[in-house]
Design brief:
single chain; 7 helices
Length: 267
């Protein structure tokens, strides 16, 4: 009987530790405008995850410094973290920004250098930022992305994503970020036919200016897409961080988007 209990315990333990906890968040102009209290709040929100993908890092005006400050704050909370930050994206100076990844070094290993997408940088204003991570003997490459705004038709950029699995056939790709476009849009059909699934369906992620009848979220913009042939996804969570604030206006000092998270099992 004890052997059976031990076997079940080992199976459950293995299952638990095979999951990589990924969080994605558009942190809205992360730079010098964020206070120390803002940075600490962000750190407390993301600290329980293994890999954090951030969008909308300010290209200048303290963006890189804010990411370093965030990593430093995370390092004070019980785990050792490292980070990588992209060069400014190649769009116009008005819209250019950076991406960042942060990860727990005791669980996750970064493989090689992270890179901005080169092939489609003329077609995509804020070209995706890729980074390959390894957990145990399995690897996953996360493409961190922030699409153009809804009014500019983000589907004209997202349509190129169907070409990326073929461009990187040896990589286990996950697309995470702010697509400014719901997962129900037809532009995602080619990815779906390849076996990609969205972690969230009908989940609004952008904040309204004001809550109406306790409804504080506006649009289905943020999501995570994974290849269901090589990855399984569980424990999807939308983190309603704004509930920690007295008003939505205070919450929007942190971001106008909520973070989203999922546990990925690399098959």
């Amino acid at each position: 009987m004890n052997k059976i209990v031990l076997f079940v315990f080992l199976v459950l333990t293995t299952t638990t530790f095979s999951q990589v906890k990924l969080l994605s968040w558009n942190v809205e102009n992360l730079g010098s405008s964020k206070s120390e209290e803002n940075i600490e709040f962000i750190a407390n929100t993301v600290k329980s995850y293994d890999i954090v993908a951030l969008q909308e890092i300010v290209a200048g005006d303290g963006g890189a410094q804010a990411v370093a400050q965030l990593a430093d704050e995370l390092n004070r909370k019980g785990s050792k973290w490292d980070y990588t930050i992209s060069d400014p994206t190649s769009s116009s100076a008005y819209k250019t920004e950076r991406y960042a990844f942060l990860w727990k070094t005791n669980k996750i290993k970064k493989i090689g250098d992270a890179w901005l997408e080169k092939k489609y940088h003329l077609q995509i204003d804020r070209e995706p930022y890729y980074c390959t991570f390894q957990y145990q003997n399995k690897q996953v490459t996360i493409a961190n992305f922030h699409a153009i705004t809804k009014s500019k038709q983000p589907e004209t950029e997202i349509k190129y994503f169907k070409l990326l699995p073929e461009q990187y056939p040896k990589l286990n790709l996950v697309f995470a970020g702010d697509f400014n476009c719901p997962q129900s849009h037809t532009v995602f059909i080619p990815l779906q036919k390849m076996g990609y699934k969205s972690v969230f369906q009908n989940q609004k992620t952008s904040l309204k200016k004001e809550c109406v009848n306790n409804n504080c979220l506006a649009s289905e913009f943020d999501n995570i897409w994974y290849n269901s042939k090589t990855i399984s996804a569980t424990n999807a969570k939308a983190l309603y961080f704004y509930e920690s604030f007295a008003t939505l206006q205070e919450a929007r000092e942190i971001s106008d988007h909520i973070p989203i998270a999922v546990e990925l099992k690399l098959l």
